[in-house]
Amino acid sequence: MAFPTSISGSPGYEKAATTTQKHRLGTRMVFPDGRTFYYSYAAEAITAGKVTMGSQTSSGHIKDLAVAEAASAGANQIKLTNSTTAITGSGKYTGDFGTRGDYVDGYVFINDVAGEGQIFTIADHSSATASGTLTIDLYDNDSVQTALTTSSEAGIHKPVGHSVEVWDVNDIDGPPLGVPAHDIASGEYFWNQTTGPAAVLTNGTVVLGKNVMTGSTTDGSVDVMADDSSAEFLVGAVLAVGATTEYSLVDLQIRP
């Protein structure tokens, strides 16, 4: 199944949410006024105006998966030995071409030893039981550039925008990904806003014209940015101040 990677939209398009996938995760939508949105999938219910974050890939898949079979330069397929967490594969391998695997359109990167530093987009992949072999197909025009050996180690990651959650100040699973313009139900595909004016949940006293960061005490909110050494992430600049627990108008600067 092929999806366009960037589309033009207009006001109202950002409020379309469905339980079936209509675009490739990570598809970018731009409005005439410059507002930008990325197509995402919600892992939980998300209220309009709350800052969201990505979910962490299974800890056993983050890094150090052994390359199961050497891959020469020019190879279009990479085989890894899976960890203890099973992976559901794509329809190509099961005969159900409507099924997309857990990591389709995500990434495989070589984190250590021969070929380290390379990254590839996952076009398709097989299922893999715990400690089983995971076969990863790259896109047609992509290939291994520096040969991999069975000593090489890799990590895999789902597409950015997969399994989006509300920003949790006590359990940060990934970087901020955007702010939805309407309420989202768990399991829905939706447009997550990353640049331009957005109503955002406010914590404390924000300042007109000043930057705000991901909230440090209230989930899904923004706080005034204290200084550049802050451990939190820049969200944007305040266009109109809302009282604490209300919503301010923020010029988002999360992802262009």
Overall radius of gyration: 20 Å
Question: According to CATH, what is the topology of the largest domain?
Answer: Virus Head Decoration Protein, Chain: A
The helicity comes to under 10%
Beta percentage is 25-35%
Main beta sheet: strand number and arrangement? 11 strands, mixed
Average pLDDT, rounded to a whole number, is: 91
How would you sum up the global shape? Answer: elongated
- Report the CATH C-level class of the largest domain: Mainly Beta
Can you write the helix and strand succession as a string?
A: EEEEEEHEEEEEEEEEEE
Which architecture name of the largest domain does CATH use? Beta Barrel
The number of distinct helices, counting runs of at least 4 residues, comes to 1
Which blocks of ≥5 consecutive residues have pLDDT under 50? none
Q: How many runs of DSSP E, i.e. beta strands? A: 17
Helix/strand-derived category reads mainly beta
The total domain count is 2
Distance between the termini: 26 Å
Protein described:
This protein is mainly β. The chain has two domains: 142 residues, Virus Head Decoration Protein, Chain: A (Beta Barrel); 99 residues. The protein has one helix and 17 strands. Strands 1, 2, 3, 4, 11, 12, 13, 14, 15, 16 and 17 form an eleven-stranded mixed beta sheet that branches. Strand 7 and strand 8 form a beta hairpin.
In short:
This protein has 256 residues and is mostly beta strands.
